[in-house]
Amino acid sequence: MNQAGWMLVSALVLGFLPPATPVCPWEMAELENWSNVDTWLPGEIPATNASVVIPAGKKIVLDAPIPRLLTLTINGTLVWGNVDGIRLETSYILVNGEFHIGSEDCHFDKTADIFLYGQSNAPEMVSDFGRKFIGAASGSKLEIHGEQKQSWTKLVETVEPVRMGSCGYVYDSRDENLGTRLGLHIHVWNFDGTVYDTHQYNTAGTSGQKKAKNMVKYIAGTPAGKIIAVAVYRTMGVPSPIFDELYTSIESLGGWKIRDVEEFEPYVLLAETGNTSNAIDNLNKRYGVAGGLDASAALPIGDLVFKVTSISYNTNYFDETIFRVVHKVGAFPRLSFLHNVSSWHKGDEIVVASTDFDWKQAEIRTIVECTDCADNQVRVDGDFRYSHFGEVTFGVDERAEVGLLSRNIRIEGELQDQCYNFTSEEGYLCDRFKRDTFGGHTQILKGAFARIEGAQLRYMGNQHEIAQYPLHFHMCDDVPGQYIRNNVIRDSNSRCITIHGTDYLEVSNNVCLNHLGHGIFLEDSAEQNNTIHRNLVIGTQHGNLLYTDRHKDWCEIREYCNLLSSIWVSHPNNIVTENVAAGSDGYGITLTFSDRPLGLSLQRQKDRGLYQDRSTRYIKVKDFSKNVIHSNKKDGLWFDSRVSYGQTEDGVFIPENAKIGLNYYSPREPPNAEGQLVETLLEELTLYKNDERNSWLRCGNVAIVNSSFADSRISYLAAHSTAETSCDVRHSIFIGQTANKGEPLTYIFNDPQFEHLPKSERPRHHFDQSFAEDRP
After folding, report:
1. Which domain holds residue 429?
2. pLDDT tens, residue by residue, 141-196
3. Which terminus in the chain has less CB density within 10 A, N or C?
4. Could you tell me the sign of the dihedral formed by the alpha carbons of 122, 500, 647, 659, in that order?
């Protein structure tokens, strides 16, 4: 017997076998092709607007593009084929059987798109799920496994804007006194970056028609071989007959989107006169969105990059047009990261978090080709408007987080261009948010098995109804082995990830960017033993579903509201580690409990024999460590208050889910009123640049240990929860001001209309090291 044979026999005798090659879902036996007529009864492939039902026992592989469906119900098995570019459009996907896109051992590496469409009155709906959803019913299996990528990392070098005096600077219109007339602004450059001419045409004024004619003549008279940039400042005015000539003139430069520009919509054009082949024009449609929008374009010519940006508001007068010329080294900066990002590719989008007080300084960029990048580096398609810190300063790690926003499995909810309403409540939402907030949602029910990783979800969630969130485990009880991992949830209408009546779920390495209402949300103050680990949350904004989501000005009784949080922890018996809450209009992370389970979970816990009144007051925090909290408008960490279960206090009824009073937290062993007091530890936290305070705690023997506090006017403020409890901070550092200076201001504004401005130079530090007697 040869050597290889002896090795095989030895392996068999010793019980060792080479690892089996994983079987990918599309390689499963008995699969029938969707595109095959014989797969379907009565011998017809589903056509446009078909309501498709895959029968129990039937196994189908989606092997080719398909038309838009009305509905899709999977009672058998549907496997996404190993095919690139398939798009599935439907009003809902109901999974009673199995739905597979890749597997844990065989990740799907092509592109796949799921588009959920429909309005709030669509007749296509299912009990327990509603409309516009991916739903996993009891007994079903949902497996979504996209490419494995580094979800997020940190800068290791500070990124600075290209400004006067810095490397790469050639020209910036903000350094000139050019005025701000309504209408169209023009810059013309020579190829070497020197300014040939500039003009502003007030087409929105009383002499708008004359100005429009002058602009047509100006464009016609600009010689060939120049770089021309056009930007709308606030509004072009009311269209008149001369505008057709103006539109034609701009179209002659390559500005094909100019006719679609409406009031308060930013538009830009960059082109070489006499050569429309490289023209770039961008329009950012408002679609009812309130506040600021921007549109930009960049045109590389030789070693230079010509750039134009239009910023438009429909709520105030912060509008701006910016014309710039920078060297390529500055226009396509190279970023260096803490981790290997070789899984990030050209065309992927990233978000770089703010490291200043204002979370809205987070900036999105697209990765471009880089021939001189190491495995921990990329180049992006534009220099930055704000600085993003990339250092450990005075022992405080204030390096900007950078999240990957692109995944190869993309799930998107349809939103209408204009807000609509069929009910008075929907009318209120249109008035409040100025846009459609009825997106898609994903819901997992008890008895289902779901693992979701490597997906990108956008325009999901729904402000119209509770229980309709981008990713939502709903009343599932114990779910060991199931997870939501390494996903991107972006531009959500309601939350990011919701754990409701569910225990032992893993939520890890997700990136959440821009959502209404609490971000990662433990709903009923009954969810336990869940792991919330290494998630990055940016852009938490007020929603309307619960009192605590709402801004206080939206509530008749203001004290019930305004506890918005990026990570909402409503029960102490959970693991919350290594997360980053990097920007909220409210708080970063809250630990706020109810005295009894809320909503459906009260009876659920009673049925399981797990109900004990006020138990959350007496349970130690299981693990709250290594979390980073910065750039939040209110406090970074809030450990206080309770959530009402619909109770009466001091003779006043307080509705369910309203914020109520003090927390009376007093951890004990065993966890009841008669137990012995024990200490809860919050460990290795980093808190900086939170606008009001880095932390507020109502302490019940709560100790913060080995933590860093910096760059906030108040870093730590605490009070006792009861007469017999104490507060403690040990082995921690407090830094009044670090090397992270952010964006200095020439003027300091205290008026609320200027709250969007960076505030790092505010003279408002109060560093108080005093203690109350022997008990801090």
Report:
1. 95-102+137-148+407-754
2. 999 999 999 999 999 999 999 888 777 899 999 998 888 889 999 999 999 999 99
3. N
4. negative
